[in-house]
């Protein structure tokens, strides 16, 4: 790392102790930014990096609620409003027991660059809670969401901060959150949340957008080597929103997706995952992969273990951070891997990224490859602002244009900075320069 940036990085890490995921995200971005500061000393003089690493606002709050047996439960809620240089803070809410400030800050930090890369007018933020929706009834989830929004509502708004879903937050949770926001504020402010249902202000393609976008980005990378998804053997981790839609899109382009996972284990389905059945099991019944394996028949279910033990030519990690380590990366490379598209945020460890890059594997980092979700959220905001709703075809066309644009911008930036094919460098520099220019223009705030 560039010595000037090393000193800033050390200060940032010391000021934010115990936040390992945030540290990892900061280091990964700083490693790309040396050449930018050679060309733009004004960014150093204006302390852009120091300011960028300090969220504009961090909100931590108590979320009390009662479970179905009448017992009081207490969770912790977070919203980190990281950077508003390009537009209102924008980023999802995550409900998972692992959520703490360091996770929310890593996600919010990544979101700044991702949102800049989309070319849409949105800043970066993220939030969530250590609430675990798994095994909770609809009524419990509703009471939790209502309590969460009873504090959050005062910090958000269509021109201020626009949350969406993430792990553990899908259409059901967004519905309960929106209902409570509307009730407290007495405003039908559609643009305050994205990921809404179609009949009450949502956008077609939003549910599919992150997974579809990841595959479109990966397809663009494959094209640079004269290849495509057709005939690829694909492994996807996770079986949630992003994973299911990545599987659907990859299969529609001629790939065979032979495995996917959840936090309990993984399924190997050599004939190709049956997406319609997977959707029914996961999205309608809220079941597990064991239920998929049982109903599908003729497939292998592995309890525990790593889905990355399954050979693939294309890997799409779509579950969670740091799920693919250096050993798994080396095994995949030995067995013929050609491309990785990150549907999840920071799913590959730094060691894994190094292995992929050294082996010449096409590697699309999450902040570029999974930006289709937030980009389509911005399209949802556009439709809300104009009180319009677009067709599936039109919205999907816009998503495709945006993903191809992000790919091309990352590739062109990597070329410009002398490291062709390095999408990590391209994404980090491309996103950073846009935000840094806006911050400079807006003065010391
Ligand atoms: P979901 O909650 O719909 O699905 C998450 C999936 O990942 C589930 O299959 C879950 O398994 C698995 N998973 C979660 N945590 C772990 C863990 N610690 N270990 C192993 N498996 C785990 O979330 P999404 O699909 O929305 O999000 C997946 C990833 O994509 C996240 O990194 C998210 O930040 C990222 N992302 C999501 C966007 C969106 O639009 N939703 C946008 C951009 C990025 P189980 O059910 O067993 O918990």
Give a description of the structure.
- With 445 residues, this protein is of the alpha/beta class.
- Among the domains are: 58-188, Rossmann fold (3-Layer(aba) Sandwich), CATH 3.40.50.10860; 207-369, NAD(P)-binding Rossmann-like Domain (Rossmann fold).
- Helices cover 49% and strands 15% of the residues.
- The chain has 18 helices and twelve strands.
- It has helices at residues 3-15, 20-30, 34-39, 41-45, 48-52, 101-118, 138-152, 171-185, 206-223, 241-252, 275-284, 289-296, 326-334, 350-358, 366-369, 372-385, 392-416, 423-441, and strands spanning 57-66, 72-83, 89-95, 124-129, 161-164, 233-237, 256-261, 265-268, 300-303, 314-317, 339-341, 362-364.
- The strands form two sheets. It has a seven-stranded mixed β-sheet with strand order 9-8-7-6-10-11-12, sandwiched between helices. Strands 1-2-4-3-5 form a five-stranded mixed β-sheet, sandwiched between helices.
- Helix 10 (241-252) links the parallel strand 6 and strand 7.
- Helix 6 (101-118) packs across helix 18 and helix 9 (206-223) crosses helix 16 (372-385).
- The chain is globular, with a radius of gyration of 21 Å.
- The protein binds NADPH dihydro-nicotinamide-adenine-dinucleotide phosphate (NDP).
- NADPH dihydro-nicotinamide-adenine-dinucleotide phosphate (NDP) binds at residues 165-168, 210, 238-243, 262-264, 318-320, 343-345, 370, 373.
């Amino acid at each position: 790392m560039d010595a000037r940036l090393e000193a800033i990085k050390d200060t940032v890490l010391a000021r934010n102790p115990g936040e390992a995921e945030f540290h990892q995200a900061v280091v990964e971005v700083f490693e790309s930014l040396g050449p930018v500061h050679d060309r733009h000393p004004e960014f150093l003089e204006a302390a852009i990096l120091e300011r960028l690493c300090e969220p504009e606002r961090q909100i931590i709050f108590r979320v009390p609620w009662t479970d179905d047996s009448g017992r009081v439960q207490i969770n912790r809620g977070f919203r980190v409003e990281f950077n508003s240089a390009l537009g209102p803070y924008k980023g999802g809410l995550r409900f998972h027991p692992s959520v703490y400030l360091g996770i929310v800050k890593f996600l919010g930090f990544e979101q700044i660059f991702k949102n800049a890369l989309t070319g849409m007018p949105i800043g970066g933020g993220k939030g969530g809670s250590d609430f675990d929706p798994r095994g909770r009834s609809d009524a419990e989830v509703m009471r939790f969401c209502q309590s969460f929004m009873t504090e959050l509502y005062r910090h958000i708004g269509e021109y201020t901060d626009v949350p969406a879903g993430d792990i553990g937050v899908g259409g059901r949770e967004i519905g309960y959150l929106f209902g409570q926001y509307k009730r407290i504020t007495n405003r039908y402010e559609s643009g305050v949340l994205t990921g809404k249902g179609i009949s009450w202000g949502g956008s077609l393609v939003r549910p599919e957008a992150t997974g579809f976008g990841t595959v479109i980005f990966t397809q663009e990378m494959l094209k640079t080597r004269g290849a495509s998804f057709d005939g690829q053997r694909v492994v996807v981790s996770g079986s949630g929103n992003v994973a299911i839609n990545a599987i659907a899109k990859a299969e529609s382009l001629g790939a065979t997706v032979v495995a996917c996972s959840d936090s309990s284990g993984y399924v190997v389905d050599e004939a190709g995952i049956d997406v319609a059945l997977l959707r029914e099991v996961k999205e309608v019944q809220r079941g597990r992969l064991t239920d998929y394996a049982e109903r599908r028949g003729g497939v292998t279910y592995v309890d525990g273990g790593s889905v990355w033990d399954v050979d693939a030519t294309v890997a799409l990690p779509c579950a969670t951070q740091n799920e693919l380590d250096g050993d798994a990366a080396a095994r995949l490379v030995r067995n013929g891997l050609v491309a990785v598209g990150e549907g999840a945020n920071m799913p590959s460890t730094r060691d894994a990224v190094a292995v992929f890059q050294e082996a010449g594997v096409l590697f699309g980092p999450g902040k570029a490859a999974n930006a289709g979700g937030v980009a389509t959220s911005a399209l949802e905001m556009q439709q809300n602002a104009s009180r319009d709703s677009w067709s599936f075809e039109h919205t999907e066309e816009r998503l495709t244009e945006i993903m191809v644009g992000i790919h091309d911008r990352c590739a062109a930036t990597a070329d410009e900075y002398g490291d062709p094919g390095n999408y990590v460098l391209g994404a980090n520099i491309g996103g950073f320069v846009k935000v840094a220019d806006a911050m400079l223009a807006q003065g010391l705030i």
